[in-house]
Design goal:
Shape: elongated
Structural class: mainly alpha
Mean pLDDT: 86
Length: 108
């Protein structure tokens, strides 16, 4: 029997890649607007920095609105992993306590 390999990226990776894609898209649009002189260019050699900063400023509210679902999915995934880690730590702590109690009982 052949087994299908299916890989699904973690929600955090998906959200990060979507944010990056949104930034690259905004950067390209703003670069085009600067090239067409619709948006003012930076002074001297600062044009690239100007376009990057403007793309960051525009991407922030866009990602808040457009990527709400991906962000909520990533947050749920992270909180689930934190909860699993807390449960595992509590289980390990109780095992250590039981071992300590058994050792003290054997010595005393």
């Amino acid at each position: 029997m052949s087994r299908k390999l299916s890989w699904k990226p973690s929600p955090m990776l998906r959200y990060t890649l979507l944010r990056l894609a949104l930034f690259v898209g905004s950067f390209a649009v703003i670069w085009g607007l600067v090239y067409l002189r619709v948006v003012p260019a930076g002074l001297g050699k600062s044009n690239l920095l100007w376009v990057m900063l403007l793309a960051l400023v525009i991407t922030a509210p866009l990602s808040y609105v457009l990527l709400r679902g991906a962000r909520n999915e990533a947050a749920a995934h992270i909180s689930q992993r934190v909860e699993n880690t807390r449960r595992n730590l509590a289980a390990n702590r109780s095992q250590e306590d039981a071992a300590d109690d058994a050792t003290r009982a054997a010595q005393g």
